[in-house]
Amino acid sequence: MAADQPAIRLTGLTKTFGAVNAVDGVDLDIAEGEFFSMLGPSGSGKTTVLRLIAGFEQPTSGTVSLFGQDVTDRAPFDRDVNTVFQDYALFPHMSVLDNVAYGLRVRGMPRRERHALAREALATVRLEGYGDRKPGQLSGGQRQRVALARATVVRPKALLLDEPLGALDLKLREQMQVELKELQRELGITFIFVTHDQEEALTLSDRIAVFNEGRIEQLGSPAEIYDKPVSPFVAAFVGTSNILDDTLSRLVLGRGGIHSVRPEKMSIGREDTAIHTDREVAGVLAEVIYVGSSTRLIVDLDIGTRVTVLEQNDADRVGEDERGSRVRVGWDERDTVALAAAPIPADDLPLLTRPEPATR
Amino acid sequence: MRLSSLARGLLAAITIVVLAAIYLPLVVVLVNSFSTSTSLTWPPPGFTLEWWVKAFGNAGALDAVLTSVQVALAATVISLVLGTLASLALQRFEFFGREAVSLLVILPIALPGIITGIALNNAFRTILGLQLSIVTVIVAHATFCIVTVFNNVIARLRLLGTSYEDASADLGAGVWTTFRLITFPQLRSALFAGGLLAFALSFDEIIVTTFTAGSSVKTLPLWILDNLFRPNQAPVVNVIAVVLVLVSIVPIYIAQRIAGAEKIAR
Hints:
Chain A is of the alpha+beta class. Chain A contains nine helices and 18 strands. Chain A folds into two domains: 224 residues, Rossmann fold; 100 residues, CATH 2.40.50.100. In chain A, the strands form four sheets. Chain A has a six-stranded mixed β-sheet, with helices on both faces. Chain B is mainly α. Chain B has one domain: MetI-like fold. Chain B starts with a helix and ends with a helix. Chain B: Keywords: Cell membrane, Membrane, Transmembrane, Transmembrane helix, Transport.
């Protein structure tokens, strides 16, 4: 296995269900040991890509390679990847220990050995002593951990996670995010994480692929995705963005094209105060929403659009009682991101260019 | 939901009438099995155990019970195997003609028994050139017993979904291992329920049996029909009927207990 071999390589991957292109020509390299997220709204094709990698679906065209080996035609049991399912899919008629030991059992490992390894795996997910219970007797978070233990005890080369935290409540989610990250570091294997939660993707990932309508709209580090979205879709889907269309851009920036500015990059001041930014626009404060650590201010600009400004809460902030008053909104040139007008085929974007086919 | 006391009283009355209509005749049979009258007269003129003694010494009746059990067991086993395979194929795989096959599997239960009987009688004797025997009865019964197993198993497969099987394959298990360790254990109670129904269906079948049994094979329903109107046999038939009622309560009770236990476990 060459060192420069990607853990997973997808080439021209396409999957059609009836008349629908669920996955539409996806090219992607995922490195060994990478925490890689596939982010997108439901129906964007991210889960189908995961199922194609696992082997539950056959691609209409294109190939899936694991560590340089073409596995497109192999059955799921013949691929060195394991999946943590959205609904966990723990076998209800088996004890927790037997669930975790299942992968070892079907590989023919004797009972004593596999139970020892399964107990170890349960310990790494902090579930010692739960081995004799049935999955039905566990809480959501515990089931989640059992599913993780079951998928990792067989030492896969990559772990596929299909919205694994989707069923958990917020507190548990945040806790499991930390545990996932730790587990990935500990195991040192590739994690491919499917989610529709942009915050989750930004928090956990080394790299993110943003999916839209079966294609990868943008591929990059969390910072690249967040700070330099390439399209209105990415700008709007990942976090909140104030989008200036062509007309507004000409008006405010003096140049054409579509631009976006993050709410937290904008400043707001009363009409009579200077805010010292490159761009300044006047408007009327429409709504003030207090969200704890910060305040979200909605402003109707005189140029005919509505923007959201996020301000840290400090003493001199514009207050709720000023709703309806005239304000100024400003931002710096460097926080203005130029967006491509429409989704652009992956091959045409510098960010998305695949590495040259390596000399093998 | 709250009901007025009038509605509740009315519903209770209807329930009692319906249950009485079902079970009082069975009580009559039970009482008659101890009656000194041989012609099923009511009320019974006296009490005797004579028929019970006779019934357990009646070679014809005992033979018929044995034959029926053999037929029902064999038909049930065939149905379990073929019904499970058919439901797996139709629920888990896509292939040309799937809908048609699905309909064809279920159809026999809807066909009038007399049609099935005549058709099979014809096919066995004139086309295949077979002697009617216990084997032809078993095959005939299996044609419609499959449906109960098929329906039970396919409903369970639909309920289970494919995620357990996906997970098993994902963890390295081949198709057969997945069936043995994951699918089959979760089908067990559906197979039990389907098998029980298949057994019951075969055990009291009379029309198809008439056409496919020939003269040498006497299942219990055939024997009862033959003997019901013979004056000295009628009370014995009553005894057999009572025994059958008692025997059939047991599996139904077990099936209910299993269903109840599963509901709690889920």
